[in-house]
Every structure is written in C-alpha cells, then in structure tokens.
Amino acid sequence: MRVRIASMLTILVLMATPVWADEEAPNSRDEEAQKDLSQLQGTWQLQSLENGNKETIKVGKRTLFIGGELYVSRHGDRIVQTGLLRLMTNRTPRRIDVVIRKGQYEDNTMLGIYEIKNDTLKVCFDPEGESRPVSFKPQENSPQFVAVYKRVKPAVPEEVDIVGKYRSESIGADGKKQVMAAEVLRRGDAYMVRWMVPGGLAYIGMGIRQGNTLSVAWVNRGSFGLSVYQITKGPKLTGQYTEVGGPGLIATESLTSTGEGGWVEVRQR
Question: β-strand 251-257 against 109-117: which pairing, if any?
Fold first, then answer.
C-alpha cells in the first residue's frame, strides 16, 4: 500500500484567508494555541447565553461545531452562522477572533475571550468587533454576550486517547515490510491521520471512531483505500487495509505510539 511519494498532497482551502484584528497577534504556530485548538475540536451544546442587558436568553437546540479553524453554529438542523477562528494565548484571559463568513454579522470580525475547563467552553464576544471584552461579564447596554457550552460526547465512550505521533509498520500483500512515521489528529468530530516519509506527506486520511474501532479512508496521489483499526492501551492501533479498485487483497498495519502528543495546526497564511 505505502508507496513513497516525492511531493506532498495538495489540500484545497475552501474558505478565504481571514484578516485578524489584533496587530500584536503572536505567531500562529504558538504551541499553546495549537493545544487549545485541539481541545476545541468537535461539537458543543450551548448551555446558557447572556447579553449586555443581563438577559438570560433561551438557547433551545443550539450547537457549535469546530473542525480545524472552521466553526459552524446551528439551531437544530439549520445553519445559523459559519466562519473561521483564531486563538491567541499570550494574554490573560486568552483571546479569540472570529471572522464571520455567513449568517448574522456577516463579514464582521468578532473580538472575544475564551476559557476551556475540562468539557466546558466559555466565551465572551463583541459581535460588532468594536472592542474586546476584558472579562466574562458583558458590559451593560452593549452588544457583548457570554455563552457557555458543554462538549457533546460520543455515544460510545472513547476510553483511550489516540491523538499523537506513531510508528507505522505495514506488511503488504507481497510480504514486504514498510516503516513510516504517522500522526493522528482530532479534526472536528472525526480524526485525521497522516503518514510521512523523509520526502514529505505520503498518505492522508479521515477516520470515524466508534469506541475502540477506528475506520479510516485514505488517499495518496494514485490510490485510495480503507483501513480499520482496533484500539488498545499504549495507545496502539492494530489494523488491516485494502485498496479501492484493487484485487481485494487485505494487508496488515500497526501504529505504535512514540509518546509524543499531537495537535491540529493553527496555520499562518
């Protein structure tokens, strides 16, 4: 399966590059920002919403999805707002900018602050982008609001955290062994898997996890395939794979943790 590829895959960027409000914004590859963004991946249920008039607003079925730098706000099945976010961790409280692409306040950059504690996310925003809140109490008679979210946990518990870097060992149908570096990242409600060789990125895949099973569809420049892994402590992922359009041969692969953490990159464009 793992044929070495000289050039990296081209990943299409579907949304325009945001223009961030803070002139003193730190380098976007700040390690703390990367870690925070990794923690934010997935779906969050809105628990409470308070505005500058100190009104508690009924939240209904409002959810927030974060995948990479993209966010999608929904009310039930209806998309309310979409945009891009950036985190800044060199101030207290930590800062967040959101460029709204669609929905209310479209084309505005919301200035805010955020706090993550376990499975709770608290944010305070000025949706009009005029001034950044300094605390989690919205200024009186202002458009500022405070929102509190709880993480939506998967229906089947994920007992082993699989985010991190791995050593990949695969044995093809011809009996040949190949070793590569691999990385598993949380991406929204799914997982991104990347396989690397000295020349760059070899394969990239997206996976769905159900308990201790991870199913990954992967691609390189010339082939597509499916891998299914069983997750055990370590963590270690032991699986089998096959190629789309191939003869139906099934080969084996194991991913063994190197002990290094992984995170979603906060990209500077």
Answer: unpaired
Check residue 222 and give its pLDDT: 84
124: left (phi over 0), alpha (psi -120 to 50) or beta: beta
Report the CATH architecture of 164-257.
Beta Barrel (2.40)
248: left (phi over 0), alpha (psi -120 to 50) or beta: left
Strand partners, 171: 177, 252
CB 263 within 8 A of CB 38: yes
Q: Residue 95: is it exposed, middle or buried by C-beta count within 10 angstroms (0-12/13-18/19+)?
A: buried
Contacts of 112-120 with C-beta under 8 Å, sequence gap 24+, read 114/87, 116/36, 116/39, 116/40, 119/150, 119/151, 119/153, 120/148, 120/149, 120/150, 120/151
Counting as low any pLDDT under 50, the low residues of the chain are 1-28, 264-269
Q: Which pLDDT belongs to residue 109?
A: 95
Say how far apart CA 236 and CA 231 lie, in whole Å. 6
Residues 6+ apart with CB under 8 A from 147: 46, 48, 49, 122, 123, 124, 125
Strands 42-51 and 251-257: unpaired
User: Rounded to an integer, what distance in angstroms lies between the CA atom of residue 183 and that of residue 121?
Assistant: 26
- Residue 213 buriedness (CB in 10 A; 0-12 / 13-18 / 19+): middle
90 contact partners, CB below 8 Å, separation of at least 6: 26, 30
CATH (one of 3.90.580.10, 2.40.50.220, 3.30.700.20, 2.40.128.540) for 31-151: 2.40.128.540
> Which pTM value belongs to this model?
0.81
H or E stretch including 102?
strand 94-103
Is the preceding omega at residue 235 within 30 degrees of 0, hence cis? Answer: yes
